[in-house]
Amino acid sequence: MTTAASVIAVVFAPEAVAEASAKVVALLGLPHCPDRHCRWFDGTLLTVQAERALHEETVAAIGAVPGVRRALHLPHGRRFHHRTHGLPRDVVRLADGVEIGGDEPTFIAGPCSVESEQQVCEIAMQVKEAGASALRGGAFKPRTSPYEFGGLGASGLEYLVRAHEKSGLPIVTEALDSSHLDAVAEVADMIQLGSRNMHNSTLLFRAGAHPLGKPVLLKRGFSASLDEFLEAAEYVLLGRFAAGHAAPGVVLCERGLRLFDDLLRFSLDIAAFPVLHARTRLPVIADPSHPAGAREFVAPLALASVAAGADGLLVEVAGDPADAWCDGRQCLPYDAFRDLARRAKIVARTARGAPV
Ligand code: PEP
Ligand code: MN
Q1: Assuming Cys at both sites, which of 105, 132, 178, 314 could form a disulfide with 348, CB separation 3.0 to 4.6 Å?
Q2: What is the CA(52)–ligand 2 centre distance, in A?
Q3: Is 23 helix (H, G, I), strand (E, B) or coil?
């Protein structure tokens, strides 16, 4: 479980780090820094854990040290991802009118991987017409085997730009590594961080701290507890705090766990939706495609997720699934996606107690 320690997070102006941090460390009464309670992130953010909450005067004095840009006190195990009592949950905005965490579920759809300009442009137009409000497609693909197709890389990103120009859909695409962040953030309206990277804390922090401030879609590691998932989200939120980006900016994605059942690719954790909603202010969407592993299971998992409170769906769709270069077995054809989007809206309204 997450510790109940109090934390102060202090962001320094780069040119003033040495002098200002010495003053902050003195105000905190630390013998030296770093010690076991301090941690630096990319040289300008310092977090310090304390058993007890700090006095408000200490926090104010730290905030007033010249060279300190921001200081935030998180008392008694409080975290950035926690919901403030009485305040609504986050709504993450991808583009004009496209939001996640609002009244209606948001559908994000597209191919597992970008294969060509023509492929991704056609899919974009089709999924838009079928009810999607954002396009997903991988230019950098995490693959289990090093001999499988790993994505088109930079040209895949260019084709996503074309697909956005044609369809107007905002783009969701994955950064596999910190070295991809500049190129991905330039193109993406939301940066996807994959299941296998949920434990890559450097990437999590840097994705949040990227100067373009794009929201991050964080997928749950397929053997991660919910607590570990939320601590991973905390790295992204801390990155956003370090860079001074406005608060709503992280969307969680439940995408299934590796259990003992080999008839399913992964086991979707339906309980994650209500539990995460109770614990965090972040929107939570479902990826029903990767746990299903086969297209016939996608709709039941998607509908169950929406019924359990998912704020949206991330669905793999292809024009000719049998021909897809990656994950074709679980891709929905256009008509099946259209039908799923229609039914998911009805299920969401029912689950939320709205008139159908
Ligand atoms: C994907 O979304 O294409 C993907 C590889 O998902 P995950 O990181 O959840 O395995
Ligand atoms: Mn895939």
Answers
A1: 105
A2: 45
A3: helix
Does this model's pTM top 0.90? My answer is yes
Give the Cα-Cα-Cα angle 284, 285, 289 (nearest 5 degrees).
150
Candidates 160, 249, 240, 161; CA nearest to 206 is: 240
| Mean of per-residue pLDDT scores for the chain | 96
Ligand 1 pocket, residues with Cβ under 6 angstroms: 112, 138, 142, 194-196, 219, 255, 287, 290
Contact 261, 303 (CB under 8 A): no
3 CA distance to ligand 1 centroid (A)? Answer: 29
Paired with 88 in beta bridges are: none
**Ligand 1, pocket-test mutation among 113, 172, 195, most atoms within 8 A of CB:** 195
> Is the CB of residue 71 less than 8 Å from the CB of residue 23?
no
- Look at the block and give the residue holding tokens 């590594």: 177
Q: How many CA atoms lie within 13 A of 41 on its CB side?
A: 27
Question: 181 alpha carbon to ligand 1 midpoint, in Å?
Answer: 17
Q: Give the dihedral sign, CA 284/289/293/296.
A: positive
User: Which residues of the chain form beta strands (DSSP E)?
Assistant: 6-12, 38-41, 45-50, 68-74, 92-95, 98-100, 106-110, 134-136, 171-174, 190-193, 216-219, 250-254, 284-286, 312-316
| Ligand 1: nearest atom to the Cα of 256 | 9
Residue nearest to atom 6 of ligand 1 (CA): 194
Is 138 in a helix, a strand, or coil?
strand
The per-residue pLDDT for range 121-180, each reduced to its tens digit, is 999 999 999 999 999 999 999 999 999 999 999 999 999 999 999 999 999 999 999 999
Length reported for the chain: 356
Ligand 2 geometric centre to CA of 78 (Å): 35
Among 151, 176, 185, residue whose Cα is nearest residue 325: 151
Give the pair of three-digit tokens for residue 302. 């998607």
Return the pLDDT at 247: 79
